[in-house]
Amino acid sequence: MKFVVVTGMSGGGKSTAMKMLEDTGFYCVDNLPVSLISTFTELIAPSGSEIEKAALGLDVRSKGSFIQMNQALDELKDKGYSFELLFMDAEDRVLVKRYKETRRIHPVDGKGSIEESIKKERKILKAIHDRADYVIDTSSLLTRELKEELDRIFLKNEEYNSLMINVMSFGFKHGIPLDADLVFDVRFLPNPFYIDELKLKTGNEKEVRDYVMSFPEAEEFLWKLTDMIEFLIPNYVKEGKHRLVIAIGCTGGRHRSVTLANALYEALKNKGNYGLSINHRDAV
What we know:
By secondary structure, the protein is of the alpha/beta class.
């Protein structure tokens, strides 16, 4: 039987992940009291059980429940039960934004600020995060992309290294993205903005893409950038990095950066066992 324990930061996407696993045939139980984990496992684990895939969602919102959860998971291992631990996460700024949008009270400490509550919860969950088999950062993931990641791990059984790569384009005149790990400047390429028939288009359109990539410098930049990123990825994984944001910028973030970001995304797609997403911050 395939048994998955799902936990993570409040607002990180645990409930969404549980719903997606249920849609793919998992028998899902959410918010089960920690004291019942062992009993639940004993009921679904026997050979011949009708349940072939099960997912258990756990909220660990206090130091006490965290200690109990760790003990319960250790007991399962001692009894010979195998399970995979999925930790749903997101950047603090994203969690704050999600809580403000939903106007929910943070479960760790509803009396304090959201920021302080998130810090407390992250500290409580650090050990669970570190022992997780899979860590999915949903900060920049679309719902479709999250489903693809879950399918890749739990349906296709592909090797997974918990690295999520986000390729993004931006305009320098709007500021460098604060969460960027790697920033590349493509303003050395001719600007389609000064060509009347291309000015109002973006790098998502063929005419702009063909113009930008018609210059040998663009092709050489893409080749060298791809080669460097492919070198860096396994080294980031080795160091335990879970999220990598690659930002490519031009002046306004509509033409050159969009074109090269799309080209890098295509070059990296289907080449490794990492998650990959793309977004264009200023191409509106």
